[in-house]
Amino acid sequence: MAARAVPLARLIGRRIILFTLLAMLAQLGVIFFDYYRDDGELARLLIEQETGLLARGTSLQDGQLIYHLPHDDLHRYVRRGSGYFARVRTEDGAVLFSGCDLDCEEHFLPLNVNPPDFWSRQLRPGKPLSVVGGRTVQVAGRKVLVEVAVIGDRNGKIWNVLGREVIDHMIVPMTLSLVFVLGGTLLSIRAALAPVRRAALAAEALDPMNAASHLETEGMPREIEQLSSAVNRAFIRVGELIRSQKLFTSAIAHEIRTPLAILKLELGHVDHPRARKAEADLDELTRFVAQLTALARLEASDSSNFVELDAETLALETVEAMAPWVYEQGCELEFESDGSFRLPGIAGLLRDAVRNLIENAVRHTPRGTRITVRVTGTGIISVSDDAPPQPERRVSPETEGAGIGLQIVRRIAGLHHGRFELRRGSSAGTSAQLEFPFSNKG
Q: For an engineered disulfide with 374, which of 226, 249, 336, 420 has Cβ 3.0 to 4.6 Å away?
């Protein structure tokens, strides 16, 4: 079983996501390399991160600034031996919070110094980081200086800094880019393939019996329009080839008819039983040539030549034309109508279909058989007989498709979007039924 084709949008979407992930991995490596080797920048970012977290604990109560550690993770600033120290003070030197002993206070700014907006200093180069610094924040319109000292960074807060930079400089912008690029690409593909989708649906609905059928190329992208135009040109070439073959078949059939008629005329002057046998064989051959001619006419027709027809009138005219020949063969022919209907079609082909069914019934039933052509208002034309079951009956349910005549009938029904069905009665008789989609009742 052939593998199911993958939609173009899904294929391109997967490629975009894959290459975006590869770009994100490459950018992750660049960010990590640039920041990790720059101790000064890491120190600045670490001071910003820690002072920002500590500043959240400052609030105003009854006109006075107070401080509480905002969450448990910051308790490392009051735990001895943690290597993390902090001090929060006002602009005039009042200390709101201190997690620092006398040894570390020497690294902070003196209380009588007007604090800058931001400051930082590395205590020693290399990693793990050992830095001290602080920054001024505004709380209820008042300046508050938050200072921290990180000695050895035992809790690995540097990784929080790197993670934040990755989120801010890679994940957020790359995700936004992916959403817009992927969405724009998929919408563009959908818009570009909309004419192709319509062409595919149109190709499924093409009428193979209509020579004017083709794929519409309007609105297609140029590359796909070239493909569709090439397919249309291929249809035209195939149609021309088929028409030339049909013309050849029809020409042969017409050329043979004249010699056969002359040969039969000459045999009529010969008074011998073998001449009569040859005449019978010539009649069969003439009938076969007539069927070839009908087949050629059928293959040269398409639905573009359809006109509105009345089924009752068409069937009645065929019965009237066939009646003398049927009576000559010793059978009876009658016509019944339960209401007519109209259908689009080619009158000559539909007459050929009814004529073939009548001839088939006459040739494969005994003399005296009654053959009935019936038209019903539900879109059905049937040809039935009342012959008793015989071993040499013309068809059986297993072989109903045999014979060029019935194949012609089936082809004519298909051209007119109808259905041909042959039914054999349980006790006697066979019914050949043509069912068509009709436009309105007569």
A: 336
